[in-house]
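User: quick one, sequence for these C-alpha cells?
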C-alpha cells in the first residue's frame, strides 16, 4: 500500500477505489471534505470499525471514503497516537512503540518529478457535529 501518516490529519481517509477493493461497508453521511484550493465536496461515505493492521499492531478505526490520487490511505493523528507511532526518517522507518506489539515498519520516501518532494493536498471536513452531538470519524 501507499499509505501516508499525516501528523496534521484529523481524520482517517481511504480512497474510493481501495474501499471497493477491500469490500468496506459504507454508511452514507452529509459530511463534506475540502482539499486545498478547491470547493468542499460530499464524501462517498464512512466505513466504521475497519481493522487497521500494521505488522503485529492492530486497531479499529473509522475512515472517510473520498477520491484520492496519490495514496490509498491517510492515517490520522489519533490512530498514530494509539499506536505510539514515531516517524524515524533517518532510519527510513516508523517505530510503533505500543506496549503489546512494538515493531519497526519500513518507510518509503516518495519523490516525484525527478527528485522533487511530492506534495499532498490537505483534506478538511467542512461540516462539524451539531451542538451536543459527538462526531465519529
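Assistant:
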Amino acid at each position: 500500500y501507499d499509505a501516508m501518516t499525516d501528523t496534521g490529519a484529523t481524520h482517517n481517509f481511504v480512497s474510493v477505489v481501495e474501499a471497493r477493493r477491500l469490500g468496506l461497508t459504507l454508511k452514507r453521511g452529509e459530511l463534506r471534505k475540502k482539499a486545498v484550493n478547491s470547493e468542499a465536496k460530499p464524501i462517498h461515505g464512512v466505513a466504521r470499525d475497519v481493522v487497521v493492521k500494521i505488522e503485529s499492531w492492530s486497531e479499529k478505526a473509522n475512515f472517510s471514503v473520498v477520491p484520492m490520487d496519490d495514496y490509498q490511505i491517510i492515517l490520522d493523528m489519533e490512530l498514530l497516537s494509539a499506536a505510539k507511532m514515531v516517524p524515524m526518517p533517518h532510519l527510513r522507518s516508523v517505530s510503533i512503540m505500543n506496549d503489546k506489539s512494538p515493531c519497526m515498519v519500513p518507510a518509503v520516501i516518495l519523490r516525484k518529478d525527478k527528485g522533487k518532494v511530492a506534495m499532498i493536498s490537505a483534506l478538511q471536513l467542512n461540516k462539524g457535529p451539531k451542538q451536543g452531538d459527538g462526531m465519529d470519524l
